[in-house]
Amino acid sequence: MEVRSPQFRQSAAAALDDARLQGALRQVRSRFIDKRAKGVASLPEFEALRENARAIKNHVLERLDLYLEAYEERVTAQGGHVHWARDASEARGIVLDLCRKANARVVTKGKSMISEEIGLNAFLERHGVAPVETDLGEYIIQLRGEHPSHIIAPAVHLNIGQVRDSFRAAHTHLPPDRAMEAPESLLAEARGVLREKFLSADVGITGANFLIAETGTSVIVTNEGNGDLTQLLPRIHIVLASIEKIVPTLDDMSQIMRLLARSATGQEMSVYTTLSTGPRRRGDLDGPEQYHVVLLDNGRSNMVGTEFQDMLRCIRCGACMNHCPVYQAVGGHAYGWVYPGPMGAVLTPTLVGVDKAGHLPNASTFCGRCESVCPMKIPLPKMMRHWREREFERHLVPADFRRGLKLWAWFARRPFLYRVFAGLGMTVLGLAGRRRGRFARLPLAAGWTAHRDLPAPQGGTFIGQWKRRRGAGR
Amino acid sequence: MSGRDDILRRIRASLGSGDGEAGRAQAVARRLKRHPRGIIPDTGADTGADTVARFVDKARAAAATVETVRSANVGKAIVDFLRAHNLPQRLRAGADERLRRIAWPKGGEPEILAGASDGDDVTGLSHAFAGVGETGTLVLLSGADNPSTVNFLPENHIVIVDAADIAADYETVWTRLRRRFGASKMPRTVNLVTGPSRSADIEQTLIMGAHGPVRLHVIVVTG
Ligand code: SF4
Fold this sequence. Notes:
- The complex is a heterodimer of chains A (about 475) and B (about 220).
- By secondary structure, chain A is α/β, with parallel strands linked by helices.
- Chain A has 23 helices and twelve strands.
- In chain A, helix 9 packs across helix 10.
- The longest helix of chain A is centred in the first third of the chain and has 23 residues.
- The longest helix of chain B is centred in the N-terminal third of the chain and has 14 residues.
- Chain B is globular and about 70 Å long.
- Chains A and B meet through helix 2, helix 3, helix 4, strand 1 and helix 8 of A and helix 1, helix 2, helix 6, helix 7 and strand 9 of B.
- The site of iron/sulfur cluster (SF4) has 13 residues of chain A, from helix 14.
């Protein structure tokens, strides 16, 4: 997928002006947040589980090489195959190779962010293999030639009218006067169309929420059941997973599983959690004949041991974006690549480079809500700050911004002058704005005043007030 | 260098090699062998609270229908369910021996299609390996006894679970799996199923019956 993160500012501005998108984003705000709050409240042990989940993942990351080896050994012992991919292009090559060996024309796909990360669909299409997304949201955006705007609700930016139009355009074999009003009819229509694909596909590709080292098992979590049909019906099942998905044991997986659905959709448990270990066994009447796992690195091994290691605990629940005021305002596409919201603001620069994605860690108000809801206790704001520092060090920040900061820093190092000028500025602004109490326009501050008024300052500078109050308190 | 070796080498380089090697390997081996249980939510099971009742409540909350019957009445419960929903008296089911023990009402035995489902079946019947009281979750194992396609392709899914097999938490089920299949071994597929299939991908509206069953009916068998 093309990286469009450098255009973040323009994309964000366009998103703010898009009334349809803003309507859809209001749903994110109300629904996801309430549901998560209820899900969390239903489990008194939630906080203790967060602590333990963090400890489990930290334990793994410090021994990631060893756990990967143990996992591979178990997969192989049960008749599966593990393929290691250094980067996106190696991963795509491995998948295409497996498809070609199977003479595959149609490939069904369960939801996988790794597939998005490596740009698999476009690549397969270019090479004569037709990928069919089977998660309803993914299917809709595939029909529209779009990319997901949310990691667990890929089509959250669309309304039902847009879905209807896409189905009308794509399902031309169905009678034009069929019922399409209710969302139920649209779901039934997709179910029917995709059922045929499930039954005719040669290869099924899924992601993985967890890889379990103890048993060599991959785990997917869905509500629709599409992931299960994807991996159950074709002759070949390919699992796409990044290396940090490893957990040691079934018990460790269960600890994190208790956090995942509650943080994502507010459910206590998703409808289908499926543990897959190797191919069809002797006596089995269904299931794939071959089971392959593609383990993707793509820059993650370099995050281990750095200030970004904590990001590798992420379980892709989406809570950070649901609670992010920036995501709520601009939606997922503005972030310009696969991973949006706070987790994307941290991850995208590591995976595509800070030169391209440096805007993302700057799109934060540092309100800290993402960290406070993250089930894996990932210090997202701190890591965004790391990126800002790196970006600044590498002179990737625009010149006028740097000059402004330098000027401020010069004053900040000279407290007396700082106070004099801050006081002066306040007095002038306070006097100029005293009639209306706010400014609709100000020189040098158009970026702010174009969208809202700036209140006129009153009551003295912060330092002045601090002094007075401390004096009063004694 | 192969991709595998390269990735492992990079991880080791990032971690900083050194003195802890033996200790790291030991810690991994120990955890895999001992699989510590971690924090188990208090479901009240150890103070005698009713795990089966909790399972029933939670499964209903997840939109499954549940009934509790004595083993002599399982056949009647199935026939009644099919009739109540105007479904053909025909079931797709695997070779689970518990199926043969079902006592059907006289003259009312439904037709049983044996084997995996090919997508044309209206109703599937499975026997669960276990239930989990914590969330009302069914645990189904793949194999000739209960082919996984039966769990997903038919629009209606009836699952029979013995009350004695309903555990308070997932961890208890893992312990039973290890005992049954051996340490670090698993059946090809373990399906944890909590309610019927659903999607909220159109305007965040929850609709039941996506790609899996529209209806999930659970029959809990006591004694
Ligand atoms: S960073 Fe945390 S909150 Fe965000 S998706 Fe990852 S695990 Fe969820």
